[in-house]
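Supplementary Methods. Inverse-folding protocol.

Structures were first reduced to a discrete structure-token string of length 217. This string, shown here, constituted the complete conditioning input.
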């Protein structure tokens, strides 16, 4: 199943999908993931393949999820505007502020589209950084790689949460709910497998997450 065979009405993407063919091992891992997804077993596809390096597996899947979320968000950009979504939120109880080590050193309120585009650019900056996501075989991952990965997944979850809480009706109208549900289920199985997100972060979508985990397959 391809997550990227989306509706022809999809708008221009915020960022171009990131390719990973530069790294042969990572490309093979991507192909393995696609093949396993074809089996219909999301609980199986997230498991670390025997003999593979954990960091390579995390890196490969991070690029994949970045592409999935980029594509899914691209389908609803005409609905997610600063006027309709003046803050980055997931329902009425959860608001997300942006902070990074460069431009926004203090928690900063943003509209949802500004937050998501800043987030996608932030993730891409890591993916494109050879010192963080090395693409040449034999080059080591940084010692802080695990911390970076956890921060990336914590923030990517927020995009799913915003889409589900504020734009699910648009997703349904576009006929993309199956893509969204499969992508998010895959995401949840993956982060649970490697403990990448604290359980409290699931709160805005707790019921949906619980339903996926309870009926894991």
């Amino acid at each position: 199943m391809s997550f990227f065979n989306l509706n022809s009405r999809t708008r221009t993407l915020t960022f171009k999908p990131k390719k990973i063919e530069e790294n042969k091992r990572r490309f093979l891992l991507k192909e393995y993931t696609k093949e396993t997804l074809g089996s219909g077993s999301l609980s199986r596809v997230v498991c670390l393949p025997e003999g593979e390096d954990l960091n390579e597996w995390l890196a490969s899947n991070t690029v994949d999820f970045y592409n999935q979320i980029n594509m899914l968000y691209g389908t609803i950009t005409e609905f997610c505007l600063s006027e309709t979504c003046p803050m980055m939120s997931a329902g009425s109880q959860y608001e997300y502020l942006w902070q990074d080590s460069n431009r926004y050193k203090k928690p900063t309120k943003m509209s949802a589209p500004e937050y998501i585009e800043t987030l996608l650019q932030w993730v891409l900056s890591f993916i494109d950084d050879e010192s963080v996501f090395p693409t040449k075989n034999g080059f080591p991952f940084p010692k802080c790689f695990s911390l970076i990965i956890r921060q990336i997944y914590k923030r990517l979850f927020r995009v799913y949460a915003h889409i589900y809480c504020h734009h699910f009706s648009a997703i349904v109208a576009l006929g993309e709910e199956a893509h969204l549900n499969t992508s998010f289920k895959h995401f949840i199985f993956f982060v649970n497998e490697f403990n990448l997100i604290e359980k409290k972060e699931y709160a805005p979508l707790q019921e949906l997450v619980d339903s996926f985990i309870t009926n894991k397959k």
